[in-house]
Every structure is written in C-alpha cells, then in structure tokens.
Amino acid sequence: MEERRVALITGGSRGIGKKVAEKFAKEGYNLVINYVSDSTNIEEIAKEIKQTTQEEIEILWIKADVTDFASCENMIKQAIEKFGKIDVLVNNAGITKDNLLARMKEEEFDKVIEVNLKGSFNMTKSVIPFMMKKRYGRIVNISSVVGVSGNSGQCNYAASKAGIIGFTKSIAKELASRNILANCIAPGFITTDMTNVLSEEIKQEIAKQIPLKKMGTASEVANAVYFFANEENTYITGQVLNVDGGMVM
User: Fold this and answer.
1) 157 in active site
2) 183 pLDDT exceeds 60?
C-alpha cells in the first residue's frame, strides 16, 4: 500500500485554511492542522474535513502560535513523531490590523509583520531540515494581491504579504537543488469570515472592481494551493499565482 503524503497547514481550522485542509483530505493526505484560537469546536471541524474524503486519513491537531519559533519547532517535531515526514507545508496563518498610516500604531504594524511574515519564516525554517533529508518538499505560502499592488489602509498587511513573495522566491532558489519547490498564492477578495462582516453594498462595490464581477471562494484558493503542492508539480517553483478574478494583471 502506497504511503500517504502529509500536509501541514497553519491557521487551518477556518476560512481559507480549512478549505485547504478539506482539499488535501479529499486527495488522501494525512493532515497536521495548526490553530491558535479556541479549540472547543475542533472535533466538529475534524468531522467536516473527514466528510470530504473516502480515504481513512489521520488528522493531528496542534495548538501553537506561529510567531514563537520554539513553538514552531515543537510543532514540526510532533508532526514528525506522528507521521515520520512532512511533504507539504502551507503557510496560511495570517491577520489584519487595518489603519491609515497616519493613525496606525506601532504595535499594529509589528503584530501583522510578526504573524504573517515572521510566522512563515519560523515554520519554513523549522521544516526544511526534514524536507532536505527526504529530498522532497512542497512549500506554498499564502500572500495577497495587495502584496503585489498595495492597498490604502493596509500598509502593514501589504508589506507582510510583499515580504512573503520575496521570501518565497529566495527560498525557491536555495532549495531547488534538494527537490523542494516553493510557490506563492496571492488571493484577491475571497468570501470568508473576514469579508462576511462587510455590508452588501460594499460587497457589490468590490465586485464592480473585479473583471469577473464576483468575489472568489476559499475552495478556489484551495484548488490553487493543491496545484502547486501536489507531486505532479515537478517543475514550477518561485512563482506567484494570483487568484483574484483578474483584479491584478
């Protein structure tokens, strides 16, 4: 029997991360799902994820803060003890603290950089020794179209997501000789908990800016993540794929 691949997804209990987990579950991957907030509904989320697949997959849940390097190292250690390897790392954990630069507090800038950019560094740095040993790995980092185009009121978020693009391209060059591919997904406006709080009027205004005239879904982002992460991708690395309905071309 062929050994199952293993995917680790940060921020995987809701939103885009959860849909990414569901996609990998559907494809028969064992999962390591990181989360940082309330764990009361984890069993229900696990049930929902397992309902997407016919396979007998296993899920290891790990509560940890990606901004803490030691916690990231421990997360990787637990995953290796459980499954013996990590084939795919999806750096999805992220936050926003939007404000105009003139009003932005130093801690609002620092926290977004710490979670979004430093968190991706912490996880990648912790996992690559094991991927290098296996001479196999797929790293997919979740950036954003605002990391490409910028956005008023989001200088912290845009900086963190632009940093992820530069980080991805650099590690792609460093790790290619070990058969470790690193790529980026840059979602546009995606329907998630973050956008659900917006009024219908604002959502309609957003849709007008998008050539496809609609917001994307978390499943569409998950499909793009899997495109980069699956073992049939053997020759694409250091790339940024915009999943944005044509917003940024």
Assistant:
1) yes
2) yes
